[in-house]
TrEMBL record, chains A, B:
<dbReference type="InterPro" id="IPR008927">
    <property type="entry name" value="6-PGluconate_DH-like_C_sf"/>
</dbReference>
<dbReference type="InterPro" id="IPR003710">
    <property type="entry name" value="ApbA"/>
</dbReference>
<keyword id="KW-0560">Oxidoreductase</keyword>
<dbReference type="Pfam" id="PF08546">
    <property type="entry name" value="ApbA_C"/>
</dbReference>
<dbReference type="InterPro" id="IPR036291">
    <property type="entry name" value="NAD(P)-bd_dom_sf"/>
</dbReference>
<feature type="domain" description="Ketopantoate reductase C-terminal">
    <location>
        <begin position="192"/>
        <end position="314"/>
    </location>
</feature>
<dbReference type="GO" id="GO:0008677">
    <property type="term" value="F:2-dehydropantoate 2-reductase activity"/>
</dbReference>
<keyword id="KW-0521">NADP</keyword>
<comment type="similarity">
    <text>Belongs to the ketopantoate reductase family.</text>
</comment>
<dbReference type="GO" id="GO:0005737">
    <property type="term" value="C:cytoplasm"/>
</dbReference>
<dbReference type="GO" id="GO:0015940">
    <property type="term" value="P:pantothenate biosynthetic process"/>
</dbReference>
<feature type="domain" description="Ketopantoate reductase N-terminal">
    <location>
        <begin position="7"/>
        <end position="160"/>
    </location>
</feature>
<dbReference type="InterPro" id="IPR051402">
    <property type="entry name" value="KPR-Related"/>
</dbReference>
<protein>
    <recommendedName>
        <fullName>2-dehydropantoate 2-reductase</fullName>
        <ecNumber>1.1.1.169</ecNumber>
    </recommendedName>
</protein>
<dbReference type="Pfam" id="PF02558">
    <property type="entry name" value="ApbA"/>
</dbReference>
<dbReference type="InterPro" id="IPR013752">
    <property type="entry name" value="KPA_reductase"/>
</dbReference>
<comment type="function">
    <text>Catalyzes the NADPH-dependent reduction of ketopantoate into pantoic acid.</text>
</comment>
Length: 334, 334
C-alpha cells in the first residue's frame, strides 16, 4: 500500500484522539501519533474510547505511537501533519516543534481554535499547503480514556497560500476530507475558512473566556445572569469585528451558540484548562480579535477587558507551572 | 462610671477587633463584642494581637463578649452600635440583625466599604444618628489571632439624617472620634463623608474586584500587565461617576491608590474573600457605582462588566455555601 496517505498526528487530547481514530477507521490512511503523558499507557493498552458515534468500550491503538517528533521521522515522510494541540503562541511554537517532520510535500492541518492561527505556518512554511480544521466535537481525554459525547463534525478548508495554485490546495484539502469522512462522522470541505472561523469565534470568544474567568459552566453562567449581561454583548462585538474583516454573521447565531450545549451544564475548554491549571488559548481566541478590532476602528470594550483579565490569569497559571518567575521582593517605583 | 459610653461592636474581623481594642485602649468607653466563630476561643484566651501601632503579643479581651445580639442586650442600652462586618445586602440585612440592640438614642456606626451603604439604615432607623467610618487599616483575624500590619487610620463623619439637626449629629460623631482616637492611632472627624467614600472607592472598585476575578495580588496584577490595562481605566470611570454625583476627585489619586500597598504583594479584601470562599461585597463596591453611572448617564463599560462578572462569581460562591440551589437538571427553553 505505497499510496496510502501517511499522517502524523500531534496532540492527543479529546479532539486529537478522535481525529486519529476517524482517520484510521476506514483504513484509508495510516496514523503515527505523538504522545507525551499518555505514551506508555497507550503503547501498552491503546486508548479506551466511549463514543456517541462509534460505540462504547472501543480499544484503539494508532498504527504507530511515538513519544517525540524526532522518533516519528522513522515512519515518514508524511503527507499530512495534523496539529490538534492547543494554540498558545508565546508559550510554545508548534510550527517549530513539528518542523523536522515536515517535508516540501507535507500539508499541515491546524485543527485548532481561534483567529489568525495560520500566520506563523504560512510565514515559516511558504511552500506548504496549510489546512484549517474547525471541529465541533465534544470529547475529553483523561489518561487515555476518551469520552466522546457530542457528534464529530469537522469542516476543513485551506488557508490561501499565494505561492500555490488554488486547484492544488483544494485537491490536497479534499483528499484529507475523504480520508477523514466515514459513515459515522461528518466531515465537509469548507469553501470559506474565514467565515467558519469567525462563526465559531462567536461561541469561543464569549462563552469560553467568561466561563473561565467566573469558573462557572454555561448553565450556571445563565442562571447567575451572565449570559444576558455579558455573553450577548461580547458576541455582538465579535459579529461587528467579523464584519469589519469582511465576514457577515447573522445575529441569530448568538442564540444558536448560547443554546448549543443544552441541556448540559457544559464546561467549555478554557474552563477545563483552568480546572487543570493549563495555559489558556488567550491570544488566538481573545487577543487576535481585539487587535483586529483596534486596527479596523471597531469599539470592543467587553472583549478588550475580557482579554486583559485573561492575560493576568494566564500570568498566574504560567507562574504556577514554573514557566515564569515573579521576583521575591516586589519591584516598585522609587 | 455611669457616663462612660457604652459600645456594641458587631463583626470582629481584622478591622472590628482593632476597632474594639482602640475604643477600650484609653479606658474611655466600654465594648461589648458579638462574636460567632471566635466566641469560645476569645472568652477563654482573648484575642492575640500583633500590631504595628500597639506592639506585639498583646492579649485583649473586650469588656463583654457575647455570641448573639440577644445576649448583648443584658449589657445595653448602647450609645453606639458599630458594624464592622462585610456589607452584603441581599445576603443578610445587618440593620435587621442589630435592631434589638438599637434604642432611640443609639448611634449606628458603619465601618464598611462601598457607596450607598447608609440607605437601609436611614430608612429603617429614621430617628437615629448614622455614622460613616472609612478605615484605611490593614489587619487580619485568623481564629482570634490579629495581625495588624498597616497603621489604623479611621475617618468618621455622619450620613446626613434630615430628621435630626446637624449640630446634634456632629456632636455624636465627634464624641465617637474622641473615644476612638489615642496616641497610637489616627482618627479624624470627616466633614465630607461623600467625598471620603468616593475617594476610597477609587481603590476599592478597581483593585478589589479585579484582584478577586484574576486571583492575582496587587503586585502580580501589575507584573502581568493588569494595572495599566484594566485598573487605570476602571479608576477613571469611578472618578467620572463621582463627578456626576457631585464629588471632584483628582486623577493623581489613581497612582496614590495603585502605589498604596508598596512594596507588598498585597491581597485586597475581596481576594481574601475568594480565598476563603466568602460572599463578596459586590453590590456596595461595584453595583451601586454602576447604578449611579446609569442614572447619571455616565459611560462605565469596564465597571459594568466587572460587576456582571462578579455577580456570576458570587452566585457560584453562594451555591457552594448552600445559600442557593442550582437545579440538578438544567432548565432550558423548549
Amino acid at each position: 500500500m505505497p499510496n496510502k496517505p501517511n499522517v502524523l498526528l500531534v496532540g492527543a487530547g479529546g479532539v486529537g484522539a478522535m481525529a486519529s481514530f476517524a482517520l484510521e477507521y476506514s483504513g484509508e490512511s495510516s496514523v503515527t501519533s505523538v504522545l507525551r503523558s499518555d505514551y506508555a499507557h497507550v503503547v501498552e493498552n491503546g486508548f479506551k474510547i466511549n463514543s456517541c458515534d462509534y460505540g462504547r468500550g472501543i480499544r484503539y491503538r494508532p498504527s504507530n505511537v511515538v513519544n517525540s517528533i524526532e522518533a516519528s521521522k522513522q515512519y515518514g515522510p508524511f503527507d499530512y501533519v495534523v496539529l490538534a494541540t492547543k494554540c498558545i503562541p508565546g508559550v510554545s511554537s508548534m510550527i517549530d516543534i513539528i518542523a523536522p517532520a515536515v517535508s516540501k510535500d507535507t500539508a499541515i492541518v491546524l485543527i485548532q481554535n481561534g483567529i489568525g492561527i495560520e500566520d506563523e505556518a504560512l510565514f515559516k512554511c511558504p511552500g506548504n499547503v496549510i489546512l484549517s480544521g474547525v471541529s465541533m466535537i465534544a470529547s475529553s481525554n483523561v489518561k487515555g480514556h476518551i469520552e466522546h459525547s457530542d457528534r464529530d463534525f469537522l469542516s476543513v478548508g485551506y488557508f490561501e497560500n499565494v505561492n500555490l495554485t488554488n486547484e492544488h490546495q483544494e485537491k490536497v484539502c479534499k483528499r484529507f476530507v475523504s480520508m477523514y469522512k466515514n459513515d459515522k462522522n461528518q466531515c465537509v470541505f469548507d469553501e470559506n475558512v474565514k467565515y467558519s472561523r469567525w462563526r465559531k469565534l462567536v461561541y469561543n470568544a464569549g462563552l469560553n473566556p467568561v466561563c473561565a474567568l467566573t469558573e462557572a459552566d454555561v448553565g450556571r453562567l445563565e442562571i447567575f445572569g451572565g449570559t444576558d449581561s455579558i455573553i450577548r454583548k461580547a458576541m455582538k462585538e465579535v459579529i461587528a469585528i467579523a464584519k469589519s474583516d469582511g465576514v457577515e454573521l447573522s445575529e441569530a447565531l448568538m442564540d444558536f451558540m448560547i443554546r448549543s450545549k443544552d441541556p448540559v451544564y457544559y464546561r467549555p475548554s478554557m474552563l477545563v484548562d483552568i480546572d487543570k491549571g493549563n495555559p489558556l488559548e488567550v491570544e488566538v481566541i481573545c487577543g487576535n480579535p481585539v487587535r483586529i478590532a483596534k486596527k479596523n476602528g471597531v469599539e470592543a470594550p467587553y472583549l478588550t477587558l475580557i482579554y486583559d483579565l485573561l492575560k493576568v490569569v494566564q500570568g498566574r497559571i504560567m507562574e504556577k507551572r514554573g514557566m515564569l518567575i515573579v521576583p521575591k521582593e516586589r519591584q516598585v517605583p522609587k
